[in-house]
Records
---
Amino acid sequence: MSEQTRVAVSQQQMRQQHQYAQMVRTLLDQKLGPQRYYHIRTYGCQMNVNDSQKLAGYLEQMGYQQTGDETRADLIVFNTCCVRDSAERRIHGHIGQIKALYEQNPDLIVCVCGCMVQQEGAAQALQQRFPFVRVCFGTHNLYAFPQMIFQVLSGQKRARSIIDAPTVAEDVPVVRDGVCAYTTIMYGCDNFCSYCIVPYVRGRERSRDMAQILDELRALRDQGVHEVMLLGQNVDSYGKGIDGASFDKLLEQADQVGIDRIRFMTSHPKDISGRVLEVMANSRHICHQLHLPVQSGSDAILTAMNRRYSAQRYLQIVQQARALMPDIGLTTDIIVGFPGETEADFEQTLDLVRAARFDSAFTFKYSPRRGTKAAQMDNQISAQVKKERIVRLIALQDEITAGVHQQLVGTRQVVLAEGPAARSPGQYAGRIDRGVTVNFKSQTDVTGQLVPVEITQAKRNTVMGQICPQA
Ligand code: SAH
Ligand code: SF4
Ligand code: F3S
């Protein structure tokens, strides 16, 4: 990647945005008084979760408070995903439901942003279909959110801002919740897997400066954050175009910061280096967890997907990772029903899943995306076959997950307690180093603590544990 494609938002532009946020604050203090609420609905991947935390940061600068109840909100944001058709349809349904709220409160500011909006022509189409959507912006314009809110508050009917130039903006305020934080290390993707919309809506790959990332990690450590997830669509190509920067070097330095746990995602099998695995194995704080999407176990399909590795190469990486870290937790993404996938191709995927023994797998039915190469292939697979294949794949993976969880029973692990378990009163939930979620009983609030537990029982998606008496 050349330097020209890495468009940094200047400090002056950022200062301007902070001024807009202050102007919005003053305006709204007069108009609404000090009580005003925002509600954000986030769809898609961790990248979007991280973006929503930045939007929340700006909104709190503007004097809004968060509410989980959208009927109370003065401002609602839909941060969208378009990776599959099912996501887009669900989001359209949810935006449609907001119409009733808008009719009761015409001052309600409805914003739609994120990947769906970044698609060509999508913003216009959306505002035509849902005229109550007043603010629309793409993934590259997030940094200018305060300006858009200022525009609609000062009388402009709508604000729409979709630009093609990918940006890297530092100093956007962030609202984080919980004991784990996200830090984006690179934006965009240059891989153009033939099925995938992400490179079109997130732009060309661009990495943040290593010094900025490390400063952020130190600040998080000082704020008491215990776990950080380093984010990127392809973290293994971090640092391309920046002298002296590479993902293994970043990991090595991140390990020195002293945050209890560091995880990262997503890795790409064509780019992950042996050096990254060695740094993981030799580190103190880099978790032994690797999310390594395989997508298919058939070389013909992998070629058609433009993934640029073979099933054999993938299994070699798995073997190398396990040799260095026998306790590693491997997870993956798999697509079934890619154009041209035969029963034999699909069986090769099942074979690979048996050989790799993933802790868990995210499984998807192929969904054609407008503008991508695979959408134009003429050997599309029927909905019925996709469904039948995904059912078989999930059944196999469930069996393997159960076996992995069973093997954990009786072992001692350290859990970073993230908070009370969602559906089990009296219990806390957290993850062990390899990423598996553990529920365990505790009389005291252990949120944010590293708790030694013995695993006592395997469940479908989680395991149960018991706090070990302190030695
Ligand atoms: N950058 C990551 C993740 C990208 S999106 C990676 O390279 O793996 C997350 C997952 O969604 C992908 O790994 C893929 O399995 C799935 N996905 C992407 N496009 C899809 C499509 N058109 N249909 C079905 N699944 C898709
Ligand atoms: Fe999409 Fe492939 Fe990039 Fe992942 S690596 S975001 S699947 S194009
Ligand atoms: Fe979806 Fe955009 Fe993530 S399309 S998966 S939210 S990068």
Note: The mean pLDDT is 95.
---
Amino acid sequence: MSAILEQLSAVVIEGDETKSPGLVQKALDEGFTAKEILDNALVVGMTEVGIRFKRGDMFVPEVLMSAEAMQTGLGILRPLLAASGAEMLGKIVMGTVKGDLHDIGKNLVGMLCEGSGFDVIDLGFNVAPEKFIEAVKQHKPNIIGMSALLTTTMRSMGHTIKALEEAGLRAGVKIMVGGAPVDREFADRVGADGYGSNAPAGADLAKQLMGAA
Ligand code: B1M
């Protein structure tokens, strides 16, 4: 890897959002394409963050700082990626389900998915089934990601999947679910395609669902 891309990847791991935009610009000035910078620096950095988080060598605040460093760098690349029509790994519509305001875990999963090369559309929290349906019609995602932190709101995942079926949209998307009260058995029961126990597992699952892992 070139020195500038290595530096950028290290800055993402360190979580230094003040340095990442400058390094992204420098890499562009050196002639790297937006896609090369995304794949060979930002994604490499966030992949390492995911590995360290899974191993217990990094914690939530540090992962959030890394994600911030990735996001500020990605801010420069986004319009260039869109203009060049560069192929992303896939598109994910992500949200915390209806009635649930917990979004820290969902944000982490979204950021690691973005760091893995996905285009992530974040619907926020308290997302009703109709809003997921609207988003599927508008964005045509490959994957829907749903998060729930309350035992009282996790059932909304099932309601959303049912609503997608009724709208004739279920067959066209993969669905992944996660959150503290959710487990694999629950995911199977509500008809999801997969369950992620934590943020790196969520990003790995998204790649698997795209046949890219
Ligand atoms: Co609330 N809360 N909370 N809360 N809160 C919990 C979840 C609770 C366990 C606390 C407790 O009682 N011990 C409890 C739920 C009990 C239950 O349902 N069995 C609870 C409660 C009861 C409530 C209220 C009802 C309290 C009240 O008002 N009486 C209320 C409900 C509001 C609502 O949602 N309608 C409430 C409110 C809040 C705050 C708003 C104050 C705040 C949320 C702020 C925010 O998110 N912006 C809050 C917080 C912070 C928590 C705790 C303390 C922390 C949650 C968190 O962010 N964890 C939590 C107790 C705890 O967990 N220790 C608690 C860190 C985060 C990184 O982990 O979200 O699990 P987590 O995400 C993980 C994985 O689950 C997974 O990856 C993430 C990263 O590894 N994951 C996915 C998550 N989504 C995924 C999606 C995937 C894949 C993986 O694919 C799509």
Note: The longest strand covers residues 90-96.
